[in-house]
Amino acid sequence: MISPSLHPEPARAKCQPRGRFAFGLTPRAIWLLAAGLLFALPGFFDARLSYTMLLWDALVLVGCLLDGSRLPAAHEIAIERSWSNAPALNSETEIELAVEHDAKTAIECRLVDDLPDALVAAPATQRLRVIPRVRAALRYKIEPRERGDAKAGAVYLRYASPLGLVEKWAVAPLEQTVRVYPALRQGEDQEIFLARGRQIELQLRQARERGLGRDFESLREYLEGDDLRDVCWTATARRGQLITRRYQTERSQPVWIVLDAGRLLQGRILEDERNAERSRPLEGVAPKPKPSNAAERRDYSKLDYACSTAVALAQLALYSGDRVALLVYGQHIQQRVLPGRGPTHLRQIVEALAQARAESSEADHLRATATLNRWQPRRSLILWITDLAETAMRPEVIDGAIQLLHRHVLLFVAMAQPDVQAIANARPRNVEQMFRASAAQELAMRRELLLARLREQGALTLDLDPAQLTSAVLNQYLKVKERAMV
Questions:
Q1: Domains of the chain as residue ranges with CATH
Q2: How far apart are CA 355 and CA 364, in angstroms?
Q3: pLDDT tens for residues 19-38?
Q4: Is the pTM of this model over 0.90?
Q5: 237 pLDDT band (50/70/90 cuts)?
Q6: Cys bridge to 428: 111, 419, 434, 435, which one at CB 3.0-4.6 A?
């Protein structure tokens, strides 16, 4: 789970008047003034009766003056914005707006929270009744739309008394920077993978292999044929006879998550919300039915899906005892987190993923490969999430992947474009559709040939829709752990 410290800090401020003359008549007061015209009708029959209209309007204006004087000044009102959880893609975040004042009359408030497009499509007007010296609060939910840092603006306030003849306008400067994190898997789904990872870990402990690897296991007396490099000279000196070390296969392995942030990962996926979680379930576990009334449409980039998968894999790998590292690259290295463990390390990974940005140019795959080999000289598991450029020549990313295979276990994931696959699978109804389907099928065949070449070199490959990415990667990671391939 993400640490509560990732939540944005509450913001609190006193209100300020919106301009020099920050007040005005309400529609109710204007209608009352307009109603005075009715008293002008009898003036056609008796001129003295026309003064009734002036008397009525004067009474209304006096009432407005008295009503406005009872309203609190802007600086007497304080507004606080707080967040219920860390904002993340594909999840709702609840925001609380609290208002309090020390005046003598209750006020009816209309509030508009100025949030950027990354958090909400259009700010909504919220209504709240505030009693003197009593904290009143309202809550509303948003669903963030983009990762990264977003600047939340001020809260704009219009308030009036229950009589509602005059309203004042104020603004609370609650500007703050809010970080939106990658989407997180649902708790129940993640618990299934964590339980499976725990089961595999227990199996590996019971089937411990001695004499392999370089993790220290125990000491024993030296036997003929043992490697002299394994002799423990300090224990030999204490016991007066040769003592050798016994080793076991390493159980804690470095896991590198490598994300391509080049132009190919800018592609956006538009789909129904009820189909967004068409993830491949854990083997042997039946998929959960999705609610049929969820018809909201979302538009996320491939990099958003990749970041969400990276968070899920980091959680699972850290829970399994592995050391997790992160590399996000474009033309240059964007984010780097070296191998580590623990909740603090997971937070560093999540923070780095929140700031990953897709670039408009092609990523430099060979530079990323050389950098990774320099930072990780020992054998490790590498999850590389990217896509294949449609060029006549072999994509550079394939050459980089082959270089990694000489030293590491590589899980190479190519993110497919669902609409292209749909065109390839559709039955053409005319000549134009036939050519489109042929082109899409040719692209799919070329991708399969490139991935087959990687499999021949020993890589594990996946080519799937972004919506299926997380579950497929977690399943593959558990297979690698179960077979002790690293």
A1: 11-180 (2.60.40.10), 212-248 (no CATH), 254-274+295-483 (3.40.50.410)
A2: 19
A3: 888 899 999 999 988 887 77
A4: no
A5: confident
A6: 434
